[in-house]
Amino acid sequence: ASPLRHKPRELLGAWLVSSGVYLLIATIRTMPEVLGLAIVVLSFLIAMMAVYGPKAGPVGFAGTFAMVMALGAPVTLDTHVLGFSLYFLIGGGLYFLYGLAVARFLVHRTKQQLFAECCFELSRYLRIKASFYEKNASLDSLYLRMIRQQAAVVAKQQATRDFLFRDIASD
After folding, report:
1. Residue 12 host element (H or E)
2. Residue 53 Rama label (left phi>0; alpha psi -120 to 50; beta)
3. Read out DSSP for 53-89?
4. Contact 27, 86 (CB under 8 A)
5. Cβ count near 67 (within 10 Å)
6. Within 13 Å of residue 66, how many CA atoms lie on the same side as its CB?
7. pLDDT score for 137
8. How many helices (H) and strands (E) does the chain have?
9. How far apart are CA 165 and CA 44, in angstroms?
10. This prediction's pTM
11. Which residues are CB-contacts of 153 (< 8 A; sequence separation ≥ 6)?
């Protein structure tokens, strides 16, 4: 989840990337050699979007989804390519509007859910920590579980902080 002011950029990025990928793959799908090369290059570029952080993951997924949709569409003529691409573009635009409306309408619910997930992760961490007081506890496995859970708690806390406090103006 991301703050409401970042949502339009994320949705717009996913919409543009997926529409571009769809148009490209639908256009060259009758040329197997070029199509194979394009799939490899696009898959690499989409995977490299992860370098930009967790916010780029959904954008990359949108690109991959568009690639699969373009490969499965029954396109044979050039006019069909543009028609199906236009349908994909319109559908992406409608989803863009729907996503913005839902994000704006449910912003408080999203904050509650993020905070609740953060509390659940913290409670799991405390349960593991409480296991250290058991009589026959395996300390090595408990330390390993606690370190993993601590990383999960920190990740949830950071995501919650980002969402809740990013819009507060700094002096």
Report:
1. helix 7-28
2. left
3. -TTHHHHHHHHHHHHHHHHHS---SHHHHHHHHHHHH
4. no
5. 21
6. 31
7. 86
8. 6, 0
9. 34
10. 0.68
11. 118, 121, 122, 124, 125
* Among the listed residues 90, 154, 84, 114, the one whose alpha carbon sits nearest the alpha carbon of residue 2: 114
Structure tokens at 151: 């990383």
The length of the chain, given as a count of residues:
171
The CB density around residue 7, as the number of other CB atoms within 10 Å, is 18
Closest CA to 67 of 96, 83, 47, 50: 47
Give the span between the Cα atoms of 11 and 104, in whole angstroms: 13
End-to-end CA distance of the chain: 25
Quick check: helix, strand or coil at residue 146?
A: helix
Q: Are 156 and 117 in contact (CB under 8 A)?
A: yes
pLDDT (tens place) for every residue of the chain, 171 residues total: 556 677 788 888 889 999 999 989 888 888 889 999 999 999 999 888 888 877 788 888 889 999 998 888 776 666 678 888 888 899 999 999 998 898 888 878 888 888 899 999 999 999 999 999 988 889 999 999 999 999 999 999 988 888 777 666 554
Amino acid at 23: L
CB contact set of 112 (below 8 Å; sequence gap of 6+):
none
